[in-house]
Recover the amino acids of this structure.
């Protein structure tokens, strides 16, 4: 009897312990399924709100395209430093210049920015300087180098996200896309396919595949005679003459006096169709090569050169 009672007690104790363990497990599972949801979500929401609210108040831009995007997003007042190459908009002339490809780290630190915008391609050659800026506790963001309209839209989104101006960024992209569509609609039914030689310097450097100028010509149903070459390349006169372009566009007209006279009187070029018919035109350089909002203006300028009858109003 005594032995049976001892056995019963041990069994009851084991049952009790089993019940307690099962109850604890059930409670634990219930908390995992429902309890942690609120405390996990709240910090995430707070973090997003803080990131959205914490817009940079002092920005240094190391490349002109990023600067133009910042101004287009309404952040011109927050820009305190720009590169030596910045020339648009006019307000950049009032900003502190911090150098060119080799930027001045000390000058940047003296401006006490809370954000420095670099470009991924140039950042590869300036890692040491950017790291010094990061070590000073300043946020450094390298924007991917855009080489097409869709990539420019993505650059705008990146900059808008880091500056808390997402709505303005989407609005800017929408406006650009609408303008591009309007330009392309005007030339949608053109029959002719002009052959074009784009001259970016008088020593016959031109724009090939992977450049905005080539992309624009393709969008406008024109043929870039250098379209099979990659990037920027130098041609010889014989090859250009043999290609016989019907239109010549130059991007250096603003700083080469009498560029048109020099071009029309080139020895050996008199048989080129564009020269014979005086189809030579000045093309805006920044608007057709700088990955920013003004690319739309470049596309329109090119379209007006190629199809003037479609843009008479």
């Amino acid at each position: 009897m005594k032995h049976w009672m001892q056995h019963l007690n041990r069994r009851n104790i084991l049952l009790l312990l089993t019940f307690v363990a099962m109850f604890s497990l059930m409670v634990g599972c219930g908390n995992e399924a429902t309890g942690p949801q609120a405390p996990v979500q709240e910090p995430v929401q707070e973090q997003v709100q803080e990131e959205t609210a914490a817009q940079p108040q002092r920005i240094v831009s190391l490349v002109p395209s990023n600067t133009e995007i910042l101004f287009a997003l309404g952040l011109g007042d927050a820009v305190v430093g720009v590169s030596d190459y910045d020339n648009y908009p006019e307000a950049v002339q009032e900003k502190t210049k911090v150098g060119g490809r080799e930027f001045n780290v000390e000058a940047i630190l003296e401006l006490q920015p809370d954000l420095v915008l670099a470009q991924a391609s140039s950042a590869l050659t300036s890692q040491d300087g950017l790291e010094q800026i990061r070590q000073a506790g300043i946020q450094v963001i390298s924007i991917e180098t855009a080489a097409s309209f869709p990539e420019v839209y993505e650059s705008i989104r990146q900059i808008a996200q880091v500056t808390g101006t997402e709505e303005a960024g989407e609005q800017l992209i929408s406006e650009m896309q609408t303008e591009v569509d309007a330009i392309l609609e005007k030339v949608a039914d053109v029959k002719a396919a002009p052959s074009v030689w784009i001259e970016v310097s008088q020593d016959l450097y031109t724009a090939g595949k992977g450049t905005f100028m080539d992309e624009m010509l393709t969008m406008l149903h024109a043929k870039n005679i250098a379209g099979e070459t990659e990037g920027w390349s130098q041609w010889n006169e014989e090859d250009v003459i043999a290609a016989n372009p019907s239109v010549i566009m130059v991007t250096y007209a603003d700083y080469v006096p009498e560029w048109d006279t020099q071009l029309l009187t080139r020895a050996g070029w008199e048989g080129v169709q564009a020269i014979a018919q005086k189809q030579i035109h000045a093309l805006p350089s920044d608007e057709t090569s700088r990955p920013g909002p003004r690319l739309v203006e470049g596309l329109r300028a090119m379209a007006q050169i190629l199809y003037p009858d479609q843009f008479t109003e």
In short: The radius of gyration is 31 Å.
